[in-house]
Design a protein that fits this description.
This protein is α+β, with helices and mostly antiparallel strands. The chain folds into 2 domains: about 1-80 and about 225-255, no CATH class; about 85-220, no CATH class. It has helices at about 1-25, 225-255; strands at about 35-40, 45-50, 65-70, 70-80, 85, 95, 100-105, 110-115, 120, 125-130, 135, 145-150, 155-160, 165-170, 175, 185, 190, 200-205, 210-215, 215-220. Strands 7, 8, 11, 15 and 18 form a 5-stranded antiparallel β-sheet that branches. Strands 12-13-14 form a 3-stranded antiparallel β-sheet, with no helix packed on it. A two-stranded antiparallel ribbon has the order 1-4. α1 packs antiparallel against α2. The longest helix is centred in the last third of the chain and has 33 residues, at about 225-255.
Amino acid sequence: MRALFTAATGMEAQQIRIDAIANNLANVTTNGFKRSRADFQDLFYDTLQAPGATSANGANLPAGIQIGHGTRLASMSSVYSQGDPTNTARDLDVAITGQGFFQIQRPGGETVYTRDGAFQVDRDGTMVNSQGFALVPNIQIPTDAVQITILPDGTVSVLTGDDTEPTDVGQIELARFVNPAGLRALGNNLLAPSEASGDPETGVAEEAGFGSVTQGFLESSNVNVAEELVQMILAQRAFEVNSRVIQASDEMLSTASQLQR
């Protein structure tokens, strides 16, 4: 009975959908997090009669007979809509508005990408992320800096105790991808390029279509709790309906097995 296996694929699909929703809700307060969406496709079909086939009386049939075998997960993609800015009033917190990612260098020399702009300064004065990985390009903050200013174009300037005018110490560059949904998630708010995302294009904020950066703010998660809860209810009901199909199929098989001559 096809219905048993078809309904099982439906239950598995809704379980995966719930897994994605759970991860979205778990990261509702994660800086720069982009919610995930599960996309599904129908499986192959048994064609008992092809559409347009010729019937016994020589007429072309307007519809065929095709029986599907359920669904499967096609992709799990991230939705890169803008998250709301959160005011932190902290000099080294930076939010991106628009296209772009911060570039981070891991200890092995690999460059990875993030929307999380919660930066800090290590013991050498280097701007780093929360894991201690340096921002690319490298920006050094003097130890005697009393004020740090980051302009919308990413220019970083500092005012030291002995100076009356700020001094530029570097500029934050952004990277973007043709298909950001193709980036590979590494955890710790880091992303790596893949064949699907394409190669990174780097540039300066507010130029050539890149977004701007805002000091003293962080981009919050783009997860909408109400929407996720609605999707969770729909997934739960779809799971229940598919389980009812399995129960109905079992009852039909039980009835058939009890038939006697």
